[in-house]
Amino acid sequence: MGKNKLAIFGLSVLVFFTALAIFAPVIAPYDPTEIVAEDTMGPSTQHWFGTDDYGRDIFSRAVYGARISLTVGLVAVSISISIGVLLGALAGYFGGWTDSLIMRFVDVMLSFPSIFLILTIQAMLTPNIYNVMVVIGITSWMGVARLVRGEYLKIRELSYVEAARAIGCSNKRIIFRHILPNAQAPIIVAATLGMAGAILTESALSFLGMGVQPPMPSWGNMLMDAQAYMRDAPWMAVIPGLLILITVLSLYFIGEGLREKSDVRS
Amino acid sequence: MLEVKNLSTYFKQGDSTVKAVDNVSFSVAKGEILGLVGESGSGKSTIAHSILKLIPASASVSGEIIFENRNLLQLAEPELIKIRGSKISMIFQDPFTSLNPVLTIGEQIAEVLRFHQGMNRQQARDRAIELLETVRIRNSGLRVRDYPHQFSGGMQQRVMIAIALACEPEFLIADEPTTALDVTIQAEILRLIVELKEKFNLGIMYITHNFGIVKNICQRVVVLNKGRVVEEGETGQIFSNPQQAYTQRLIECLRVLTHPPTPSLSKRGGGVLSADGGELL
User: Fold this and answer.
1) Alpha-carbon gap, residue A187 to B70, rounded angstroms
2) Which branch of life, at top level (chain B) (predicted)?
3) Which residues in chain A have their CB less than 8 angstroms from residue B94's CB?
């Protein structure tokens, strides 16, 4: 019950942030890259979250930043889920050498320190928002692949899969139409948690200057900008920091809630 | 119509080889129900799975399975896919787990129609409703939208039969289709199978460990033990004059169950067990 309430809270927060992101141009009082004040100013009625070192409105930047962070999270997770489901399904369904090959590849990918891998790829490519999404996606699918493989190993032995083969279903059809819908609950949970991870990674990358490039605002690079002014203008760090915290926490709550629900059913 | 010649299916288990089916031959004619009888592990199900090549690739299968002048064992997977569910169908032991829990009954019947007969969504749906009527499911127009868990065990097995018969196959493999069901439901399902056999002039291979069912519905019997054929013949002949000690023992088990020697047993268990084995139809 408690977790369920938390999940609903998480969902409400996420819906609220998504609405902010979608309607950013309507909601934000100022252009996020425009200099609207003389100097760094604390929160006031004119600038709710204050202004940053260049005199830009932090509320507007935070609202536009939500767009970036949520989009990056969503796209990166879509990529990682697609790769993970495909490879995990092939490994689990066919077994044998297909399984060994794919799972050893997963082991190799997992043994890379992923943040350095991402930084290296980003250093070779031009660091922009599209590369950030793709790079996060292709370095975070391994957990999903393992999870999906496990589900397929379990489900392929069930008799409805045998029955599907007995009526002439091809492997492709069995993999996607008969097994995948039965494995969807844990995949959805993994996607929610994965999105939280992707948002954190994006923030870390932008914080290190290898992610979303200024003047485009993301919660991560807003934090980076705040570094030098921690004493004089703490709100510059607190606002994006809190936003990341709340979003990630909300996603975790949703993930946990879904996990609990799917456990009860099985 | 279906002829099994010298079928052997071996499984490798570590260094040793398990001879699950060893040099088995028999045939099934059109409109005939052949009983395949034996204890657990006698190779009944492996024969069924070998016919449709539903066994793991690691198993070695030799011999011939002749169906429509072709040896099924030599067909490639794309050819087999066209035969499975369309010319040769199979129904399974446990209807509770043989239907996909996330697809509606209608979708599961329609699926086989759509890829074997190229029907569109609407045609397949209409035919699915007809088929549900054929296996006597009431309100079939509404029930096609239900999921398997909304059906009872007996109804689920009827749905499995509807799926198996959807493309009007010539041959049906029934792998202990009543074992997981209540005794009263068993009788209904058996009656349905016999009736549909008459209607579609099907050849049926009926796998069971229950001699009572054999006596009721099969014209001929093949008795298996440890992967080999022990005895084969007309049902009546086998029952009245079993030649092999193993067959005699199996039949004797049935007699003990249906006509228990002690009165206390007959009171408690007799009724149930006789329904299982005795005069069903």
Assistant:
1) 44
2) Bacteria
3) 159
What is the rounded CA–CA span in Å between residue A230 and residue A243?
Answer: 17
Task: Say yes or no: B97 contacts chain A, CB-CB below 8 A.
Answer: yes
Name the superfamily (CATH) of residues B26-55+70-87+170-281: P-loop containing nucleotide triphosphate hydrolases (3.40.50.300)
Closest Cβ opposite residue B81 in set A163, A168, A181: A168
How far is C-alpha B165 from the chain's CA centre?
13
What's the complex ipTM?
Answer: 0.82
pLDDT tens sequence for chain A (266 residues): 566 888 999 999 999 999 998 998 888 888 888 777 777 777 777 777 878 777 788 898 999 989 888 999 999 999 999 999 999 999 999 999 999 999 999 999 999 888 888 888 888 888 788 888 999 999 999 999 999 999 999 999 898 999 999 999 999 999 999 999 999 888 988 998 898 889 888 888 888 888 888 888 888 888 888 888 888 888 888 998 999 999 999 999 998 888 777 664 44
C-beta atoms of A167 and B97 within 8 A: no
Indicate the pTM of the whole model.
0.81
Domains in chain A, start-ordered, CATH in brackets? 3-22+57-262 (1.10.3720.10)
**Which residue of A155, A160, A265 is the best one to mutate when testing the B interface, meaning the one whose CB has the most B CBs within 10 A?**
A160
CB-CB contact of B157 with B181 (8 Å): yes
List own/partner pairs for A201-207 with CB under 8 A and 24 or more apart: A201/A76, A201/A115, A201/A118, A201/A136, A201/A140, A202/A68, A202/A69, A202/A72, A202/A73, A202/A76, A202/A132, A202/A136, A203/A69, A203/A244, A204/A115, A205/A118, A205/A119, A205/A122, A205/A127, A205/A132, A205/A136, A206/A132
Please answer yes or no on whether A167 and B89 come within 8 Å at the CB atom. yes
Nearest CB among B86, B98, B112 relative to A159 is that of: B98
